[in-house]
Amino acid sequence: MGSKNRIVRRAALAVALAVSGCSYTDDSLPPGTFPPALEPMVQQIQLFLDQGAVSAVVQVRWPGGEWSQAFGVRDLGSLDPAQPTDRVEIAGVTQAMTAVAVLRLVDDHLIGLDDPVIEAVPELAGLLRPPGPLTLRQLLSHTSGMPDAAAALPRDVDFRPALSRTLSLEQQVQAAGTLPWQASDIGLFKYSTTDYVALGLVVEALRRKPFTQVMREQVFSPLGLKDSTLDRPDPRAPNLLHGYVTLHGERIDTTDDASVAGSPASGAVSTVADLNLFMAGLLQGRAVSPASLREMKTSPGFGRFGLGLWRFADQCSPAMRQEGKGSFRDFQTVAVSSDDGRYQAAMTVTAPPMPGEVEDPASTGRRDLLNGQIESTLNEALDRLCQPAR
Question: Which residues of 15-40 are buried (b: 16+ CB within 10 A; e: fewer)?
């Protein structure tokens, strides 16, 4: 009963916190308020908390204005209020950042987008045996058909040992190489985090530097992402959002997940402000060449995913919005930008503590639903804010 009572207290506290921890940079509105166009988004966030979410942090940027706010609590131990500047593990949003590092290889003429990867990086030949040529484009677009290494690793109701399991990039790719790779899957969208792990090895081989160093030098630093890293987060850090998963009804703090630290597919830790800076810098042409940016925005024809970016309809423009999306058991994160980089919105929600997918397969659907609701909420907010470019 103690855990249940704490959740009830948290929900009550969240209501009081909904008007705190906010910042606004448009003199047209008094402090502590938000543009009327964002009111439905704030109401939806409150619904997330009413349904058990631990916290939600959001930032919206538009020409001439910026608004951010934190709801709920940073962690369920201290009950400290979440803050707009809190850092969080962003899961698959990392892939958009990794795609920038990969496409800079193309811009620097170190490899072509459609060149056979194994010819350029012979080290991969001992790890992977694809049934056909394997290209950067296929890896970036999840159309390589590569199995996901996670399917080769032990799966158990007790997920705690997996949190401390550390595998090198090579070991992860090698694990994927032990699984059947169907030629019929090549060219079809088949999401595999190992696609991006393999891309990390490509970056390391062609840059002759550790992947984390390349990301600092070519992505985080140039775009001003001062609070973004690929380092394993310190759960004792005061500015870190904590996530939770239940095991047989007991709540487990899963923030310290060594298994994804440094991963090119899901290992970045960031803030909503940095996510918006990243999307703005990318789409305003400050990250990769115009040709590479066009490729990132272009789906190979198999749905909404391009090269590291998801696409979503823009009610204010004939162009598609561009997105990064991340889903962990404990955190759901979405970053959205207009195609021209003039509008951004990013939100992370610490999901309600629920069982892992092995204990309760239905949990995956509930997490996916939350991620989709965040995506829709952000896009609807931008629809209400946007104005035609002058």
Answer: eebbeebbbbeeeeeeeeebbebbee
Joined together, the tokens standing for residue 340 give 């021209």
Residues with Cβ < 8 Å from 178, sequence gap 6 or more? 152
Alpha helices in 152-208 (DSSP H): 160-163, 169-177, 193-207
Which tokens in the block code for residue 342?
A: 């003039």
Side-chain-side CA neighbours of 358 within 13 Å: the count stands at 11
3-state secondary structure of 13: helix
Residue 342, SS3 per DSSP: coil
Is the per-residue pLDDT at 24 higher than 50? no
Cβ–Cβ under 8 Å, residues 104 and 288: yes
pLDDT tens-digit series, residues 231-289: 999 999 999 999 999 999 999 999 999 999 999 999 999 999 999 999 999 999 999 99
Q: Which two tokens stand for residue 24?
A: 């606004």
Global pTM? 0.91
**Of the candidates 36, 42, 76, the residue with the CA atom closest to the CA atom of residue 58:** 42
195: left (phi over 0), alpha (psi -120 to 50) or beta: alpha
DSSP 167: -
Cα separation values, 244 from 65, 74, 331, 339, Å: 34, 11, 9, 34
| C-alpha separations of 106 from 203, 252, 282, 390 in Å | 11, 43, 16, 33
Nearest CA-CA partner of 97 in 267, 303, 346, 258: 267
DSSP readout, 185-236? Answer: GTTS----HHHHHHHHHHHHHHHTS-HHHHHIIIIITTTT-TT-B-SPP-TT
- Enter the tokens of residue 388: 């035609």
Burial class (CB in 10 A: 0-12, 13-18, 19+), 101: buried
Determine the Cα–Cα distance for residues 305 and 192; give it in Å rounded to an integer.
13
